[in-house]
Amino acid sequence: MNELRKIIEDFQNNEVSAYGNLPYSTRLLISLAVQAALGTARTIPEEVTKALVNGIPPEAIAEAIIQSTPYIGCTKSLEALEQAENAMKMQNIEFPLKNCATVTQQTRLEKGLAAQYAIFGRENIDRNRQSAPPELRHIQEYLSDYCFGDFYTRSGLDLKTRELLTFCILCALGGCEPQLKAHIGGNLRIGNDRETLLSAVTWCIPYIGFPRTLNAIACINEVVQA
Fold first, then answer.
1. Is the pTM for the entire model greater than 0.85?
2. Helices (H), the chain
């Protein structure tokens, strides 16, 4: 176990950490989101401690995990958030944390659509909504009011960071390349360029392995060259 841990730590600390343009704080938020996506909640406390030591606010730590919910499902995200909150309490962080919700039941659809428009473009979102068959229109509504309205509009992390975390979450999940390509396009639209995406997926290698990393890079290249 110790030998394997040393190999992994040397790779991450000496090689992976040396690549790319991401601030260390962003890398730590990615680690939290990716480990939530992978369902490895028992590793969350160690990541929380690193984040706090490096000055990341407790609300941002929580939001990195909360952002994963529409993509990984509620069970994994709740378990990861519980582990994170327990770790923060051990560091004498006062609870409850600041409420980061910015929408109401009446405004979540409108605000969610605004976030979708910013990331994907109004024309693309309106086309998807209008072309959905009657039996699937509820899915488009859920994407707007739940995925984007309830989550992307929250304070604690800005839109660029949330979209970058979503990219990393989808990389970690694997098997969802159509959605990954869409979010690569969304990242590019709001200012996370190819170098940023490559930096993010490189940071993910120790967590997600090479097959999913190479698939993600192929998706990046396909979208950027399109």
1. yes
2. 2-14, 24-38, 44-53, 58-66, 69-72, 74-90, 108-120, 122-131, 137-142, 159-173, 177-189, 194-225
